[in-house]
Amino acid sequence: MGRKSALTEAQWAEIIRRNLNGESIRSLAKEFGLSESAVREKISAQAKKIKNAGNQIVAAKRAVNELPFAAQIAAHTYAEKIMAMQDLSADVAINGLTVAKRIGDSLTKKLETAKDKDLMTDKALSQLAKSGTVINIHSRPAFDAMEIERKKSDKALSNEERTIHLVNAPPDDI
C-alpha cells in the first residue's frame, strides 16, 4: 500500500471535478505538486464511475422525455417506488440480521452451559431446529439483498435494457 496522500479528500474531489470539466491531468498535477501518474491513478477509476453514472442519468432522462406526459409521471412514480423498496429492504435486512445474531448469541450461551447428554434429547433437538429456522427467516432478507447485488454486478443491465424494463412495466406495477 502506498503512502498517505498529502492532499485532503476535498482537494481530490476538486481535482476530479476540474478534470471532468476538461482540465488536463498534467496541469492539475503541476498545480497541486503531484506527479501525473499519481493523479491519473487516483482519479481514473472514480472519474470513470462518475462519467458512467452521468451517462446513465442522461440516457434515463432522454428515455423519460420521449414518453407521453402521463407516462413520464408514471415512470417517476415507479422509480420512486423502487428506491423506497430498496431502502426498506436494507432496513429489513439489517433488522433481521440483528435479531438473528441475538438469537444465535442466546443459543450459543445455552449450548456452552448444557451437558452433552441434555443436547441429544428430542426436546433439545426440536428447539435447536426451531432456533435454526427462526435465524434463517430473519437472515434471509440480508442474503437476498446480497444475492441481488451480486447478480447486478455480474451482469449489469445496459441503459437500454433498464429503459425497456421501466417502459414495459405493467401499469399495475407503476
List the helices and strands and how they pair.
Elements: H1 9-20, H2 25-32, H3 36-65, H4 69-113, H5 116-119, H6 122-154, H7 159-167
- Low-pLDDT runs of 5+ residues are 159-174
Structural class by secondary-structure content? mainly alpha
Range of strand content: under 5%
> Count of helices?
7
Estimate the mean pLDDT confidence. 79
How many E strands? 0
Quote the distance from N terminus to C terminus: 48 Å
Structural domain tally: 2
Globular, elongated, flat, extended or rod-shaped: what is the shape?
A: flat
Question: What does this protein look like?
Answer:
This protein is 81% helix and 0% strand. With 174 residues, it is mostly helical. The protein folds into two domains: 1-66, Arc Repressor Mutant, subunit A; 69-174. The longest helix has 45 residues, at 69-113. It is flat. The two termini are 48 Å apart.
